[in-house]
Write a structure and sequence with these properties.
Ferritin-like, about 0% strand, mainly alpha, about 160 residues, 5 helices
């Protein structure tokens, strides 16, 4: 009796989250003014595009075609950010805050895919991508923390 390799699972769902993140970052690049954030968002887009490209072969193995759709939850977060943008003077903070949450969702989606038995090549690629996406998450978390400090500093100086 031959040994059968495990089937690829949960890769298409991960690609949808990554695609949603790419689109959301692209929107952020268009909406914010800060050059440093535009560069950061561009880097995040490139990282996610590279991850999607490296996973598409596994998506074909999983579902018979490449994945081009976005995750609905990421799309909702994007719409929410647009709505918030109508009521805030700090659009950059709004995008940073929401995109950091998208990074959380990316990591969770990778972890979900790693929790099931994957073919060795797929699991290896997922672990490589997880390392890069953790770095993206950590960068966004740092920017979120700094943005929150910046927003609080005028209020703190008034109370002193």
């Amino acid at each position: 009796m031959g040994h059968q390799a495990p089937d690829v699972k949960k890769i298409s769902a991960l690609i949808k989250v990554l695609n949603g993140g790419i689109e959301f970052y692209q929107e952020g690049v268009e909406k914010i003014k800060e050059a440093n954030l535009k560069a950061l968002f561009g880097q995040m887009i490139e990282e996610k595009q590279e991850a999607v490209a490296s996973l598409q072969g596994f998506a074909v193995a999983e579902q018979g075609h490449t994945e081009t759709q976005n995750d609905f939850g990421v799309e909702i977060r994007s719409m929410y950010t647009k709505l918030l943008g109508n009521f805030t003077s700090d659009m950059a903070h709004t995008y940073i805050e929401q995109l950091e949450e998208v990074e959380d969702k990316v990591l969770q989606s990778i972890d979900d895919a790693l929790e099931v038995k994957q073919p060795t090549r797929c699991a290896t690629e997922l672990r490589r991508i997880r390392t890069r996406m953790q770095q993206c998450h950590d960068q966004m978390k740092w920017f979120k923390t700094e943005s929150e400090k910046r927003r609080l500093s005028p209020a703190l100086s008034r109370t002193s």
